[in-house]
């Protein structure tokens, strides 16, 4: 039996995980894959969004 599925996943460039943290309450919102160095970026969670930037 011929095994033709020998392909391997190869990383494209250098990928790292960037954590997204709420700048107001410091809750971790999520994370995203970035190229380069891993680290922390700031965003705003839904709770703070409604608290600080209420929609009309
Ligand atoms: Zn928040």
Characteristics:
single chain; 56 residues; mainly beta; three-stranded mixed β-sheet; binds zinc ion
Number of strands: 3
> Count of helical segments?
1
Bound molecules: zinc ion
How confident overall, as mean pLDDT?
Answer: 86
Q: Which percent range describes the beta-strand content?
A: 35-45%
Q: Over the alpha carbons, how many angstroms does the gyration radius reach?
A: 19 Å
Note poorly predicted spans: none
Class of secondary structure makeup:
mainly beta
For the termini, the CA-CA separation is: 65 Å
Query: What's the main sheet like?
Result: 3 strands, mixed
Percentage of residues in helical conformation: 10-25%
| H-E order | EEEH
Sheet with the most strands: spatial strand order: 2-1-3
Oligomer: single chain
Q: Rough shape?
A: elongated
Description:
This protein is mostly beta strands. Helix content is 12%, strand content 38%. It has one helix spanning 46-52, and strands at 15-22, 28-35, 39-43. It has a three-stranded mixed β-sheet with strand order 2-1-3, with no helix packed on it. It starts with 14 loop residues before the first strand and ends with a helix. The model has no long low-confidence stretch (mean pLDDT 86). The chain binds zinc ion (ZN). Residues 22, 24-25, 27, 45, 47-48 line the site of zinc ion (ZN).
